[in-house]
Write a structure and sequence with these properties.
InterPro entries: Cyt_c-like_dom (IPR009056), Cyt_c-like_dom_sf (IPR036909), Cyt_c_BACSU-c550-type (IPR012218), Cyt_C_IC (IPR008168), Cytochrome_c550/c551-like (IPR051811). By secondary structure, the chain is mainly alpha-helical. About 55% of the residues lie in helices and about 0% in strands. α3 packs across α6 and α5 crosses α6. The protein is elongated, with a radius of gyration of 23 Å. The model has no long low-confidence stretch (mean pLDDT about 85).
Length: about 120
Amino acid sequence: MQKWIMSGLFFVACGLALVLMLSLPGKEQVAQENKPQMPEVTLSAEHAETVVATSCISCHGDQLEGNVGPNLQKIGAELSAEQLYAIINKGKGNMPAFKDRLKDEEIANVALWLAEKK
């Protein structure tokens, strides 16, 4: 009798493990879900400068020369607009995330504007 119970529990556990393996997302899917998708926007330098003036100069300086945060004057030579969007959106290191402070379109516009700084 005990063998039957143990065998039944074993097969139930195997079935549950199989269901979980087939239904849980893989590493690639999780990484893709965690990577914010930059919305398509048309660059508006004037609007980007306004957002930067209100949200970024306290750490990056009024000429983006760096202060508490790094120098951004030539950041476009190092990072793409998508990379900048991800950093602004989610934050990185000491930089806070701006996803709750700015609209996605504003973040994308600033990322495009910074990406042109080479």
